[in-house]
Amino acid sequence: EGMVYMVSHPHRAWKAEGRMLQVREDRAEAAESGGIAIARGRDPVVRGCAGAVLGLLVEPEPGMVEGAKLFVVKDGIRPGRWYRLGADGLEETEAGRDEA
Description:
Layout: H1 2-8, E1 16-18, E2 21-30, E3 36-48, E4 53-58, E5 67-72, E6 83-86, E7 89-92
């Protein structure tokens, strides 16, 4: 619901942090199962532990959301790996991205 709100109201304040929540520009991560991490920006990346809920909002210009994806770290989504939205959908980023 939070991501739907962000897409519907792209100019509202949206950054947030708490014990189980991290909504940041460009890069976010969830350290606990059930935690939520949402990254928003030109080429956002997100990662989390098993059971975390992750979201990506691609915004090439402020207020213009071009792509969005919400997913849970399970099955084919590997814990501790950075993910981004690529041309063909969700993809892992290269290892060097960790230091970005």
